[in-house]
Amino acid sequence: MIDFYGLTSPNVQKIFIMLEECGLQYNFKAVDVWAAANHSAEFEKLNPNKKIPVIVDHDGPGGKPYTVFESGAILMYLAEKTGKFMSKDMRKKYDEIQWLMVQVTGVGPAFGNFTHFNLFAPKPGNEYSFGRYKSEMLRLYELLNTRLGQAKYLGGDDYSIADIATFPWTRAHEQHGAKMNEKPNLKRWFDEMNARPAVKAMIAKQGDIKSSRETATDDNKDRFFNRGKYARA
Fold this sequence. Notes:
Strand content: 5-15%
CATH class of the largest domain: Mainly Alpha
Mean pLDDT: 97
Strand order of the largest sheet: 2-1-3-4
Number of domains: 2
Distance between the termini: 42 Å
CATH architecture of the largest domain: Up-down Bundle
CATH topology of the largest domain: Glutathione S-transferase Yfyf (Class Pi), Chain A, domain 2
Number of strands: 4
Order of helices and strands: EHEHEEHHHHHHHH
Low-confidence stretches: none
Shape: globular
Structural class: alpha+beta
Number of helices: 10
Largest sheet: 4 strands, mixed
Helix content: 40-55%
C-alpha cells in the first residue's frame, strides 16, 4: 500500500496518473498547502522541502517503508518498482528521462511562474516578469509540438513517464493562450492522453478534492508565496 500526499497541482496530478496506470493501491491524503499544512512538523518529517507530492511506499525496497518526494523522482521510483513506463533499453530509457527533465526543469517552472504572475502577482508593476514567463511557456509549447512531430510520444515510440509528467501542465492550454489548432502534433498527443482511463480517473478524483485556496488568509498566501514577512530577500 502507498500513502500519497498531495492536493490538486499538476505535479500531484502526474502521480495520480502514474498510480492509476500502474494499478497500484494507494491512500490519498490531502495536504492543504493553502492552509499551510505542508509546514507542519509531521509533514516536514516526510519532506524537508515542505512540498507536495510525497509518497510513502509501505512495501518499499527490502520490504520496508520508503518515502519519496519530488514528482520526477516519484515517477522514476514507481516506474522502476513496477517495471512500467520506463524502458530498460539504455538508449530509450535516457530518451525518456531527458524529456522528463524537460518537464521538471523547464515546463513546470515556466508554466508555474506564468500562472503566478498572471493570477497572483500585483498589477501593475510585474509586466516584465509576466511577459518573460509567458514567452518561455509558449516557446516550450512549440518545442513539445516539434518533438511530437518526430516521435509518437515525448520519449520515443512508447508511452512513458515523460508523457505522464508533461500532460497535466498542458491541460490549461486555453488559459495559457497556446493555440492547439496551430499545433497538430501536440493536439494529437493531448487528445490521446486525455482519453486514457488513468487520466479520466485522475480528473474524477481531482474533482472531489477540497482546499482553502479561495478562502486562504493573507498570512497563508504570503507563506505559500514566500512574500511579506516570509520573504528572504
